[in-house]
Amino acid sequence: MLIRYAHPAMQQIWSMENQYKTWLSVEIAIDEAWAKQGLIPAVDLKAIQENAGFDLNRIGEIEAQTHHDVVAFTRAVSETLGDEKKWIHYGVTSTDVVDTANGVRLKQANAIIREDLEALHELLKKQAVQYKETVMIGRTHGVHAEPTSWGFKLARWYDEIERQIKRFDEVATAVEVGQISGAVGTFANISPEIEESVCESLGLHNQPITSQVLPRDLHADYLATIALIGSSLESFATEIRSLQRTEIREVQEFFDKKQKGSSAMPHKRNPIGCENISGLARVLRGYLVPAYEDITLWHERDISHSSVERIVLPDATSLLDYMLTRFTKILRQLEVYPDRMKENLDKTGGLIYSQRVLLKLIDAGLSREAAYDLVQPLTAKAWDEEIPFEALVKKSPEIQATLGEDALSDAFDYQYHLRRVDEVFKRLGLN
């Protein structure tokens, strides 16, 4: 996990200090559950609750000898206790503690990501309404198509993030899970009631059945959704990057007075934030292969997934948090140029209204084929000779004979293309 792409709150969640802190919380919760069943005396439980602790350096010293981090941890904890230390790790195995503690840490990370998603969702809602009627050219295949609005584009993003929030809620809940089922998951040395009590006390749900380890399809699904959210952000960022190109320049990332765009060219103002989002989205997608491969373990368990998850879970959650907050800031500070949008809208001399002319001719009685063959040569002439399409249409004897002056003028009114925007916004709850 690179500090450059991790906020302090996420760094703390995935720190070694918090790893052992959550391991200890699981161990104590297990002993509390045993005490409820009458196995552990109240006096011993109280001593554990009040005195159990750990020292990071001591854990490291023990692990250097044992080559087992959980054994090193439990022995370091035992050194802070008296005779009651015999109840530490009683009836459980390493993965019971590690998987359940990971559920706690994922829940902590998920709370941050949920806030990030909601913040972006709310900003998109606000800006979609603000720019609802800010007309711009819609492009297909990179070529001018027909008018749309900047707000309409933002409304699509708003709807996409709403879907991502629903997806994330589902997979996040699935990994906020624990299991305390023993060596091969059969509860031979511990009861399901202990598991249920531990998970409830930690704010987790318990997995109905395990094989000592939680099923890793849960985590693969989780990471796939994180990658999918990252891909949405990349899609939005790519649109901004494209619209910031010099030839278009309809929007632009905020550029601070002291900011430098290039070490060589003083004039440069580059969309570095959105490029950063695009790059990090590739990293998130890169975690999908190891996440999927972690699903397959030997028999009841092995630890081939462990090394992967020590990297991908901290990195993926930290990167998504970083990307969401960075893109939200980009969007909040984005410079929008409505005049430039209108200028680009008019750049083809009215060619973007060719379908409107076509449909008016059909409405006036021509067949679709006849109307299309009448309009298309005029569009070609407008393209090739850079003559305003509207002028060619109004000079066409065949079109003049079919459509009056008012009908022709109406065909070149961009407002027609925005007339359903309110209806679509109402669908989205963007009234």
Structural description of this entry:
With 431 residues, this protein is mainly α. The protein is built from 19 helices and 6 strands. It has helices spanning 8-13, 16-36, 42-51, 56-66, 69-78, 94-130, 150-175, 192-202, 217-243, 272-286, 288-293, 304-333, 338-345, 354-363, 368-385, 389-395, 397-402, 405-411, 421-427; strands spanning 135-140, 143-149, 177-178, 205-206, 251-252, 335-336. The chain has a two-stranded antiparallel ribbon. Strands 3-4 form a two-stranded parallel sheet. Helix 8 (192-202) links the parallel strand 3 (177-178) and strand 4 (205-206). Helix 2 (16-36) packs antiparallel against helix 3 (42-51) and helix 7 runs antiparallel to helix 9 (217-243). The chain starts with 7 loop residues before the first helix and ends with a helix. The mean pLDDT is 95. Belongs to the lyase 1 family. Adenylosuccinate lyase subfamily. It comes from Fructobacillus broussonetiae. It catalyses: N(6)-(1,2-dicarboxyethyl)-AMP = fumarate + AMP; (2S)-2-[5-amino-1-(5-phospho-beta-D-ribosyl)imidazole-4-carboxamido]succinate = 5-amino-1-(5-phospho-beta-D-ribosyl)imidazole-4-carboxamide + fumarate.
Distance between the termini: 42 Å
Number of strands: 6
Figure out the total of helices. Answer: 19
| Percent range for β-strand residues | under 5%
Helix content: 55-70%
- Secondary-structure element string: HHHHHHEEHEHEHEHHHEHHHHHHH
- Biggest sheet strand order reads 1-2
Oligomer class? single chain
**Parts with pLDDT < 50 across at least 5 consecutive residues:** none
On the 0-100 scale, what is the average pLDDT? 95
Shape type: elongated
Structural class category? mainly alpha
What Rg do the Cα atoms give?
Answer: 30 Å
